[in-house]
Amino acid sequence: MSVINRPFWFLIIIMLIVGGIITSCTSPPPLIPWFNEHLQIEEAVFPKGVNFSINREEVSDYIDFNEYSVVSNTSDTPIFFSAVSFWGGSLDKLGQSCPMENLCLKVVSGQAWKWDTLNFDPPWEYGWTLVDEYDQYDPLELNLSGSHFGNSDYTILLIDLRNEFDYGDTKRPDTVSIPPPQSFELPYIYGSDELDITLTVSYSINLSYSNYEPNDYSGIVMICIGGIILLALLIVIALVILFNRFLNNLDEKAKLRTIEKQSLDGKN
pTM, whole model, 2 decimals? Predict the structure, then answer.
């Protein structure tokens, strides 16, 4: 008889479902910004074929808009950006060192590239891949995400922004002062020339802030507590079932050995 049977596997499936419910109900509420963030590029003379621009898009019901920088380069001379992994840490430790001193992003001939894995199984191999694998001709989009300025793969700059967010019991007051603008330098390499561009972040009141209605999390907390108790109970039951099956298996093996011994004694 198998040590683990169908009832045990059924119990395992129930435990996974309960665990998924606990994970989903403990997801934190979204961070709601108090202010909109406006990006502005200071006047500059760019190399031939190079252009920096600002685009705006709507991203949610409780944020007025999101602005991001678009870097395009139609020339054959590449633009490089020095960057580190968006998730932090040394690229060397991740086995993902970019060539030429962490120059991990480039734009050339109208296409943005990133230094990334070329395969999904070890041994890892790295090389240039499209930033957007579904678009063969695409510029590089760089946005502000918290303190990161870059894209979803790499951070080019860490910026101490002055925006505020709802967090825990911290809510935006009815009257609040708009933070002053702040500027930062965005370095890049065009061919072998080290250049930079000045970007300014300014702020305005997020008028969509009031659209977000936080849920009553008291009921969700009770669901989480109940799910944790149920999961603990299921784990205990699973261990008991497994232990009983193990003992029954040992008992049956002992009986078989006794029968075999009696059979041998009878023959002798």
Answer: 0.64
